Amino acid sequence: MIRFTDKGLYCPAGNFYIDPWQPVERAVITHAHSDHARAGSASYLCHHLTLPLLQLRLGNNHYQSVGWNEPVFINGVRLSLHPAGHIIGSSQVRLEHNGEVWVFSGDYKTEHDGLSGAFEPVRCHTFITESTFGLPIYTWKPQQVIYDDISNWIRNNQSHQKTSVLIAYSLGKAQRILEAVSAVTGNIYAHGAVYNVHETLQQAGIPLPDIRRVTPETPREQLKGSVVIAPPGAAESPWMKKFTPYAVGVCSGWMQVRGHARRSNVDAGFALSDHADWPGLLQAINATGAQKVFVTHGFQSALSRYLNEQGLEAAEVKTEYGNDEEITELKEENGIISEQAPETT
Q1: Which end of the chain is more exposed for a tag (fewer CB within 10 A), N or C?
Q2: Distance from C-alpha of 119 to C-alpha of 237, rounded to nearest angstrom
């Protein structure tokens, strides 16, 4: 059903690609992170909530959007999108042709975050899964526990008259952590890269708290004791000086590894991820009932080996996915997308 080519995942029967990393005639997009949604293709098919994000990041193109579980027939292939739970609008792609069903998960997480849509297991013959955190060491705490940790950290900073700077990818965690932040304060600011995504999602009807953009004109006095949400690229830039005195907290699944926050030279680390942990990956794979599993980006060797040991046919696949947020934030930091110019004040 799907071939793994040098342009991306190709469906010969339908003559389309899923999340191609090179320009193609027709691209089906799982979500708006830059490694899965790249510029240059002639047409794009995505979920309704992914559409405004693609328009923000890729500009004007020929777009078609559909809802979850809304079938589209392309050259005899029945295609439908299903919630992936990764970020707002993120979807799995189900393909059915001649009685055979394949599902490409894109990126996903199995804990419902209340914002991105709850992950929906889709029964299939063949499942293509990510493995970003495909090691047993990665087991997430419940989201609310992490949110409470973030809220308490902000309160502690406030008691010391410090601004709380939370480092979070502009598309995904930057929206999620607002629940934890707004439980403490409404005095919330954001880097322009975060603000542009936030504004786009609000205009699309996503109920998010109001935040303010940090500009060169923002008075320092207003920032004291506030919360500032910034992308990773801003963490060690001159832009940060405006918030002195401040404390920095990083929201990332990589914070699960002890000592990572210390090595990153930040004050706190919160192991909040938009990807499934090890139990989540196994749970999702098992729920599909798939007879064969292809494992893409991340710890694919470890996960595919484990699946084979459990009696499930699995194989590794090399793709150009992964490091999605890092690539995006680097571009945002340098004013390539989302910003007219980098913010350095």
Answers
A1: C
A2: 36
Q: In this structure, are residues 196 and 339 in contact, taking their beta carbons and an 8 Å threshold? A: yes
Least Cα distance to 298 among 120, 129, 92 occurs for 129
Question: Which sign does the torsion angle of CA 262, 268, 274, 277 carry?
Answer: positive
pTM: 0.91
- The secondary structure of residue 224, as a DSSP letter, is T
Tell me the C-alpha to C-alpha distance, in Å, between residue 313 and each of 11, 103, 178, 280.
21, 16, 41, 19
**How many angstroms separate the CA atoms of 104 and 284, rounded?**
12
Provide the percentage of residues in the chain whose pLDDT is more than 90. 86
> Which tens digits make up the pLDDT trace of 38-74?
999 999 999 999 999 999 999 999 999 999 999 999 9
Q: Residue 249: name the closest of 168, 131, 318, 328 by CA.
A: 168
Q: Of the candidates 186, 36, 33, 11, which has an alpha carbon nearest to the alpha carbon of residue 25?
A: 11
* CATH numbers and ranges of domains, the chain: 3-136+275-321 (3.60.15.10), 143-270 (3.40.50.10890)
Question: Of 342, 332, 326, which is closest to residue 57 (Cα–Cα)?
Answer: 332
Say whether pLDDT at 263 is over 90: no
Q: Which amino acid is at 127?
A: F
pLDDT over 80 (residue 262): no
